[in-house]
Amino acid sequence: MSEADAEPAEPTEPTPGRTEVWIEKYRPQRLDEIKGHEDIVPRLQRYVTQDDLPHLMFAGPAGTGKTTSATAIAREVYGDDWRENFLELNASDQRGIDVVRDRIKDFARSSFGGYDHRIIFLDEADALTSDAQSALRRTMEQFSNNTRFILSCNYSSQIIDPIQSRCAVFRFTELGETAIEAQVRDIADNEGIEVTDDGVDALVYAADGDMRKAINGLQAAAVMGEVVDEETVFAITSTARPEEVEAMVEHAIDGDFTAARAALEELLTDRGLAGGDVIDQLHRSAWTFDIPEQATVRLLERLGEADYRITEGANERLQLEALLASLALENE
Ligand SMILES: Nc1ncnc2c1ncn2[C@@H]1O[C@H](COP(=O)(O)OP(=O)(O)OP(=O)(O)O)[C@@H](O)[C@H]1O
């Protein structure tokens, strides 16, 4: 293999404008098109059919369908008029909560199409300070006769109780393998792309419950060649194969620090993973490694420490090497 061949593939983001971005092209338009969330979707459908929408809060990780569910509700309630009756705002708007509140007020005061309520979707509501949330709560009350709020956040615990108690809270979990596989296969069929079974598995693994990641991975991999297989997916998504991560840990546990360090080097340099990605993958796969339970427990303990230190700004490579070193030392 020439040196140029050994270069890791640059992750390619689909370019909006040139080709349609598949996460938008295939965003479900109706609630019944949403994959997974079998516990949530029927309850949302009931609100729509009974024409009785409360304020809602969608809490959960990125790319799991919170925004999609909100827009699907709006499409079902307002049909073709949905855009005029649905205001999407980002709570972390750099210009501050006052701008957000002014936009809410303007929208709530106007009316379109004679509907009883209009929907305000507030993304990243957990980015608001407690004071800003208190102000938001008052705004919600002020306009509750003609607006319904859908708040989206990663962690509902970051939202003050008076807002939570005014909302029906829905917890969106990471999407399961079946949901992601189904969507990936649907899109591939529709685009006429051949995806191997190991390619689908790799997309599911790399996505880690995030449908946006899976679809972007598929689109980026499809640009690379005729067939989307495991190799392309791992390269394009900067994801290590689970076996590679496991081998690194096994070297350390066997006391072969040099081999473990070389494996880490390969992940960081050749595969292009960030230190945080290595930690995430180790954490995700630790229980599937074929190593003694005691070793898994120690690994998890050290991962927690390394993760904390990296979050606090410590050097990623040093923390990962220290983690491997401490596992290797146990063997002495
Ligand atoms: N459950 C799902 N079924 C089908 N497609 C989905 C689902 N969840 C997400 N998607 C796809 O992923 C894209 C991103 O999802 P969405 O915008 O709803 O994520 P989100 O949960 O609001 O994330 P964030 O917290 O980052 O805003 C959608 O455009 C859609 O194509």
Automatic annotation (TrEMBL):
The gene is rfc. Residues 1-10 have a biased composition (Acidic residues). Residues 1-20 are annotated as: Disordered. Heteromultimer composed of small subunits (RfcS) and large subunits (RfcL). Residues 52-177 form the AAA+ ATPase domain. One of its GO terms (biological process) is DNA-templated DNA replication. Belongs to the activator 1 small subunits family. RfcS subfamily. HAMAP family: RfcS (MF_01509). InterPro entries: AAA+_ATPase, ATPase_AAA_core, DNA_pol3_clamp-load_cplx_C, DNA_Rep/Repair_Clamp_Loader, P-loop_NTPase, Rep_factor-C_ssu_arc, Rep_factorC_C, RFC_lid. SUPFAM superfamilies: P-loop containing nucleoside triphosphate hydrolases (SSF52540), post-AAA+ oligomerization domain-like (SSF48019). It holds the Pfam family AAA. It comes from the Archaea. This is Replication factor C small subunit. The lineage of its organism: Archaea, Methanobacteriati, Methanobacteriota, Stenosarchaea group, Halobacteria. Keywords: ATP-binding, DNA replication, Nucleotide-binding. Part of the RFC clamp loader complex which loads the PCNA sliding clamp onto DNA. ATP binds at residues 60-67. One of its GO terms (cellular component) is DNA replication factor C complex. GO terms for molecular function: ATP binding; ATP hydrolysis activity; DNA binding; DNA clamp loader activity.
